[in-house]
Amino acid sequence: MDKASKITLDKTVKKMIDSELGFILLEADEKSIYDVLAEKTTWKDRTGMYGNGYHITYHLFPVFYKGYNMNIKSNLAESRMNAVQNIFIRWTEAGYNKRHAKKAFGCKAFMKYLDEIGFMKADYMLLMVD
Length: 130
Description:
Layout: E1 2-3, H1 9-18, E2 23-27, H2 33-40, E3 47-51, E4 54-62, H3 76-93, H4 108-117, E5 124-129
Parallel strand pairs: 1-2
Antiparallel strand pairs: 2-5, 3-4, 4-5
């Protein structure tokens, strides 16, 4: 997992485009652009980013499992829940929900997937949209 203050825009855009489910997880370390965005926006807002020759639109989900920024605008529980739900929808659409679970938190395979990708160690999730 990349550090939020160290990852370049080019690398961020490339990783999001290359990601099968269209998201990346970042770990907060020192002050980064994502800290500033989390203080000024909510996970519902669409944000644009240009890098690696592409312009992408994404949602920033502050999840803060490692640390916590008291100045974030989003409700942390709501942001975490919606991050998980968005991953679950994409994970299901990609064909990984073999048992056709209806809820993310009731699906052992999905919870194992979250553990494998280090979701509970992330501070930010960037989810690419249209």
